[in-house]
Amino acid sequence: MAYSDKVVDHYNNPRNVGSFGKETPGVGTGLVGAPECGDVMKLQIRVNLETGVIEDAKFKTFGCGSAIASSSLATEWLKGKTIDEAAKIKNTDIVNELKLPPVKIHCSVLAEDAIKAALADYKEKHASVPSGAASK
Amino acid sequence: MLKQDYFSVFGLPRKLAIDTAELQRRFYALAREHHPDFHQAAPPEELARVEATSALVNTAYRTLRDPIARVDYLVRLEEGRTTREGAAEKPKAPPALLQEMFEIQEALAEAKTGALDAATRARLSAQREGLRARLKDEEARLGASLSARWDGAAPAERPAVLAALKEALATRAYLRTVIDDLAEALGEDEPSRREDKRVAHHRH
Lengths: 136, 204
Fold this sequence. Notes:
Chain A is α+β, with helices and mostly antiparallel strands. Chain A is about 40% helix and about 20% strand. Chain B is mainly α. Chain B folds into 2 domains: about 5-65, DnaJ domain (Helix Hairpins, Orthogonal Bundle); about 95-204. In chain B, helix 2 packs antiparallel against helix 3 (about 45-65) and helix 6 packs antiparallel against helix 7.
């Protein structure tokens, strides 16, 4: 099966690989896995506590090319979004952008799960900070 | 026969305990009955049906004779899925396991950036042995106690048992992946690896 050019590009030049300290203020961490294949994905956001905007995002994924590309793309999309906007990213957006074949859709689902988990972790740790402060 | 599930192909109830000797006997009988070679004189549509049935009998046998593949199939059957994709309710892997797998992978990636020295090799090797032992335990649990729980469960208890089966299958998948990746880093083939997964999910 051939990967699309965009998958290959993200796989060869993954954006935003790395991690933040879990307890750093403004950081939310999502760690998820795909039981179908044993892939693991960690995705983190760093939110500006004044504005509620995601200023930076990082990921580390141990898995196939599509899983790496999905999480790499997700970090690109997350930057500059508010928490509420970030919550609207859907796996189907990732599928369309990367032209993932049906057998790789679970990789995009994994990336969406990772975003949700990171947002949930952020909210839990920063319950007093308003989300979407900059959206209006 | 073409619309039957793998259990009913062999006239078996949807239970995980299977007498494999009996399964094999039934397989041989059905394989003979539906062997395309014995139907060469049949009209084309009849022959096509025989060929499809023969393929079904073979796939059903290969799936049910393996205790783990049997569980995997049962879970999909219960959820009305034909493939591994699209689980309605995703199994929740224990978070501690995910964290552990992530840390092993991270350390492995770190080790792979340089040449593996003897100490690192020994450490990775020992780690792999430990994980293999856990994989064996998990597979034994799936094939024995968890399977028995399914067979003995009242209808109301089945969703809970199904969830436990899925979690054990997920744990097994994570362990297998990390064991494979360790073996690959050590330059050794992992004999436990079945080729179906390699093909279905090629990792680069």
